Amino acid sequence: MERQGTDRIRLGMVGGGRDAFIGAVHRIAARLDDRYALVAGCFSSSAEKSRSSGADLGLDPDRVYVSFAEMAECEAARSDGIEAVSIVTPNHLHAAAAREFLTRGIHVICDKPMTATLEEARALAKVATESDALFILTHTYTGYPMIRQAGEMVAAGELGALRLVQVEYAQDWLTEPVEQSGAKQAAWRVDPAQSGAGGCIGDIGTHAFNLACTVTRAIPSALSADLHTFVPGRRLDDNAHVMMRYDSGMRGMLWASQVAAGCENGLRLRVFGTAGGLDWSQEDPNVLWHRPYGAAGRRLTRAGAGSSAAAGRLCRVPAGHPEGYLEAFANLYSEAAAAIEAHHKGQTVPAEVQYAGTAEGLAGLVFVDACVRSSRQNGDWVALEI
Amino acid sequence: MERQGTDRIRLGMVGGGRDAFIGAVHRIAARLDDRYALVAGCFSSSAEKSRSSGADLGLDPDRVYVSFAEMAECEAARSDGIEAVSIVTPNHLHAAAAREFLTRGIHVICDKPMTATLEEARALAKVATESDALFILTHTYTGYPMIRQAGEMVAAGELGALRLVQVEYAQDWLTEPVEQSGAKQAAWRVDPAQSGAGGCIGDIGTHAFNLACTVTRAIPSALSADLHTFVPGRRLDDNAHVMMRYDSGMRGMLWASQVAAGCENGLRLRVFGTAGGLDWSQEDPNVLWHRPYGAAGRRLTRAGAGSSAAAGRLCRVPAGHPEGYLEAFANLYSEAAAAIEAHHKGQTVPAEVQYAGTAEGLAGLVFVDACVRSSRQNGDWVALEI
Amino acid sequence: MERQGTDRIRLGMVGGGRDAFIGAVHRIAARLDDRYALVAGCFSSSAEKSRSSGADLGLDPDRVYVSFAEMAECEAARSDGIEAVSIVTPNHLHAAAAREFLTRGIHVICDKPMTATLEEARALAKVATESDALFILTHTYTGYPMIRQAGEMVAAGELGALRLVQVEYAQDWLTEPVEQSGAKQAAWRVDPAQSGAGGCIGDIGTHAFNLACTVTRAIPSALSADLHTFVPGRRLDDNAHVMMRYDSGMRGMLWASQVAAGCENGLRLRVFGTAGGLDWSQEDPNVLWHRPYGAAGRRLTRAGAGSSAAAGRLCRVPAGHPEGYLEAFANLYSEAAAAIEAHHKGQTVPAEVQYAGTAEGLAGLVFVDACVRSSRQNGDWVALEI
Amino acid sequence: MERQGTDRIRLGMVGGGRDAFIGAVHRIAARLDDRYALVAGCFSSSAEKSRSSGADLGLDPDRVYVSFAEMAECEAARSDGIEAVSIVTPNHLHAAAAREFLTRGIHVICDKPMTATLEEARALAKVATESDALFILTHTYTGYPMIRQAGEMVAAGELGALRLVQVEYAQDWLTEPVEQSGAKQAAWRVDPAQSGAGGCIGDIGTHAFNLACTVTRAIPSALSADLHTFVPGRRLDDNAHVMMRYDSGMRGMLWASQVAAGCENGLRLRVFGTAGGLDWSQEDPNVLWHRPYGAAGRRLTRAGAGSSAAAGRLCRVPAGHPEGYLEAFANLYSEAAAAIEAHHKGQTVPAEVQYAGTAEGLAGLVFVDACVRSSRQNGDWVALEI
């Protein structure tokens, strides 16, 4: 997976200055397989902070910007300008920033959700369609090899006809009103102006939703949601209960919570069909349980006996040598690199290279919007119209 | 827990003839701690089958009956007649059988659900109230020691104010239409005439509901349900998705399924409060996870360091020597024996002796009824009125 | 497994009075499947204690004895005398008690180890051979269904040629010198006069050894041991490290400890062959891991898909309904009942009925003796001569 | 942990050309936290292979060498020459290569074991002592944060006085004679000329040994070993059973195997003291079990509640976001970077910066030598003289 003899892709970053969490994760992910060189950035709207962050990273000060619009313009004008940009700001800036780069032919690797609102998402999808550049959304958890295998098994019919999808994402870091005592990561996530109409459902519910859609290759046709805010004074939901129906007859449940005391990053997906079930937990990501109906359960391991070529493409080290969250994230960057390199050569992206794009991003926003509307209507079933 | 110097309680049984599953379980449970002597039975409505079953069990042929009404009458007339009866028939016979014994002052130990219909349950609750005899419902899973401890921890406020209850009960034995190929255990469970209006939701959903209620000491005020039948031709639901709300502000989700391929007897309860969470799985019943918010998770084990006196009352062997389903069931019988013995002495049942009775039985039927109604109304929130 | 139409076997007990642990376990085990009736006992050498224990159990006072020799004599003389006796005293009394009953044609079900010393074991084996009665040793852990299956898989060659056996039994209840502060269960176990020359190695090392031998169908030809006493003042070993060699070329390690802080009853067996491995843990006894070389690991569950008929014979309830320690113990009693019933009919014991007898008991004492000798010789390899 | 504002350390590599496994791992590890720039290499003794490997990595062809001696000489002469070198060749080349760089003041980051033979190790230790440059050995598994925490807990006395250390490392990739069918990774490992006198014991036994020593802060004073070769025709051991004694009175067992069918990379360490135990498994590395004697087991998680500052230094992402093998390896490189940077500033290495050096490397060779000698002497106890 390590780069072999080709040049590194020149990468810029918007957001992700000192103290930001996800920016550093994107940088590690970009670096892991050595297929990118970070050469420019607009790390903060504070000039001082952007500058110091750029210096930390050893960037040429001329290529450290305070405005992403200026960055897009300048970099597009350079012969050695960036070929791709990572957007890692709070949600409400995704749309505007992405537009600047896409319209200038610079590929966008955007943290999820695609945008803060459904309207923005529809507009951005249009921009992306009209641009020659790629739009890639970093839904981290689909970067895990065993999720790749799970999707492949479903598609190959190994579970028979799907009946049930049970997905949950439980955390506890918002159990108390930490946003009121200076927790920066919490503050913007519970602010509708920066996050959009969904709190927990937008922040992590969308990950759960995307995971379920990716593995089942299906999107619910309708849902009934009960969003709730447990922490007094919080303005967005911190827990979400959702029931789902699919046109195929499949049914599902989704639970997302940031007040589930004792849960760290408990994303789990279970899928059941007429011929068997799959079970995967993000906190034990190197294992995929396959339980064929009427036979002993099979414990499939990353790169182990029984794991597939599709999963193997995303592995660096042998079975029993755990890969984790950063490797999953790096897989997104490596898939993006493969797509960008194909694009540069004027080729179609090979079928085995998979990533989330505008369709997945739009589905996420449609999902959040439907959950919010259903919940406001006391759980009425609401159709998802992509 | 073994009987010490007191006489065994004389026990009869209705149902549970050859080939029945749950009848044998009740007998083992009654025998384990040696506090009962099985002396009479009406094992089947087939005279031949009742007789042979009685002979298998070494009963006096004079005390093997074909009609439970006759059994109640005859046993009540004997000076050495049964003091208690176990009712282990299909659901639709519970009400009529229980009435015969209760009205004659014979204690009833009844398999769940209490009755097939809510109307029957309300009527039987009235009969029980008017009778001097006890009515005890065998909700197996609350017989586990670690569930006793869980309830005690909740009651003691160790989790803070409760916020969430997530309960699930997933099996796969009805994945295929086995009721059409002679599986007796399946056939009556999917027959509305014998089971009532709930299929999976009645058969195992009620266990999950009872478990949640027992541990949280609370009953939802309303629910929204999506019952579904996946197997063509089946007349009752085989999967249930339910969202729940409580007057306290607590929220919950319940999932019950008998078509979750690869699941054996996957009953799991998680409860989350402001100060911590609990997590218990029936397939690993000797362990209770306690996750205090902001501290390392604690793995509490049956009879182990950190387990409580309330749990210890229900244990026979030291930590690390697994107790299981039969021991949990036997705990119900031992609690029943303690209650009966107190009753015989004219004493109140000691506070530490806990068992499900008509209130819990009625709650179960109210739950099933609400699920069925909500689902028929496309998931409208329906109030639970006990 | 429940008795069907045959009479209960009349059972006596030696040892197991009030406060004894293992006596109550034997009684539950005997009762579980209803194939025995406890009718006589010599529960203690204290007349008062034996009497009160008998009364607790509802026995006829005439059949409660103070001397096991008297008991054997009296019971042998009665037409309704006991057919079998459970011996559950401290180790040093096993030989004398067993002899009294065997020589009178009464079957013996004896707690392990067979005797306190190797000399006694050889002598008792001779007595048993000469008696028409059966001698059955209760090595609890081989009563688990998944162990039955493990042995069957090994015998069928599913693992290929065996190479390695790694077995361990770790407890922590002797971490501190509890024997000095009145812990009765501890006191006799660390007393050479009551236990024999092995402490931990005799008490639980023999269980680990028996488990390994049962599953591999092999006995080591030589071993090298490092026994150690960690707790000051203790007179017998509380930790044992053992390396083993087999004539077949197989190698093994055995670790037994009663000072492994944090371990409850951690008996685990792993067996590896050229074609795969097995892994079983007593604290999770319903699961047997089968890891075929070059394929995904298979999680076999008691009574579940992939479990064998041999295991199924020892099950009472379906997969997912955990059975535990008491059920494993009850399986020993049910196998004993099957053997005794065959014996009474003059038939050979059916091949599927398996239990430990004098050969296994003798092997255990040979093992303890070899460990003690090797350790005294600073770990020299010592041959096991059965 | 990401580099902040300081220049990257200029790094070279010896070994690790195309198709090598561990070379790529070292490169990812060096890259992850962005504190190194790979600028030179001698990737193979084949000129063609070294050149193409350098090209893959985008190196200046002038700095791609065929001889490590030449590389050391040329790089030492450059003003922008490498400051450190990673040595990732087969074992028998470690000593000669390390010497070239150490004597020229270039820091050495060397894959384990330090050398192929004890003699070489003693000589190299002398060279390192006389050099001003650092010698850092990459014992991967001590790079895991929870191992750092384990060592800290032991040192702080949280387990009381240590009694037992049980360590095992089980793999199955040499179950069959894969070295005879072209498996390059296998071929050199089973060749005494390239690996030294230990096969499995040297390849992975040393990891297990180092892990135990690191956490317990102790080295055994003597050991008794039973090395064995199961696969016909193999020239080095593929399984090792070892018993250990410590001057403190502690005892231990070590099992290393490469023929344990079904095991992937099963490195597990358990340590028991008078006050509690620790349990850690490499395949689930984000969890450290702490079992205080007489209290509920505590599940400590990387970066989670209850994890220590010492562990936190080695973490990049929050609890519940698994870090794995590559992150552990990167921690070694980051600790090396911290040591090198301190060295460059003429400062002592801060106490919290920990890494294995010549002492640990020498201990590993002493261990292998003792195992081989003990085993040849039929398991005689052999003293470890460091």
TrEMBL record, chains A, B, C, D:
Pfam families: GFO_IDH_MocA, GFO_IDH_MocA_C3. Coiled coil: none annotated. Residues 9-137 form the Gfo/Idh/MocA-like oxidoreductase N-terminal domain. Residues 147-278 form the GFO/IDH/MocA-like oxidoreductase domain. InterPro entries: Gfo/Idh/MocA-like_OxRdtase_N, Gfo/Idh/MocA_oxidoreduct, GFO_IDH_MocA-like_dom, NAD(P)-bd_dom_sf. GO terms for molecular function: nucleotide binding. PANTHER family: CONSERVED EXPRESSED OXIDOREDUCTASE (EUROFUNG), OXIDOREDUCTASE. This is Gfo/Idh/MocA family oxidoreductase. It comes from Halovulum marinum.
